[in-house]
Fold this sequence. Notes:
Distance between the termini: 52 Å
Oligomer: single chain
Number of helices: 8
Number of strands: 0
Strand content: under 5%
Order of helices and strands: HHHHHHHH
Amino acid sequence: MTSHHLEEEPAEHRHFARYLQALEAVAETDEVALVAAVLRDQDTTMADSAVGRHLDRRASDLLTDAKFTAWAQALTEVIADRDFLTLRLREWTLLRTIALGEPWTAEELTGATDWFSAWPPPRRSRPHPRP
């Protein structure tokens, strides 16, 4: 992307891009504070979108990592009043459960969104629902 092209972008697009860059570069120790700062932006739709992309990237990276649980718990507090982000994190947590071969229920799957249905979980072993 050329600098000329960037100058033609609407201000809100540049703002969104800056958030994405900052979220991608943030140190783990500063991540929750940056997410909270982004969510304080007056443009809540743009903020939710930026944090949603970040959440998807980080959850995917951490899916089977031991750090996932602590990360998800910390993020849960920051996104608690954002329904979309809370649901997305819950579905990533379910994907993790399935990926690790841990017990899950059919109700958890049937209550999931279309987004969740479109993501095939990583297959370490064939998942089986708990009775």
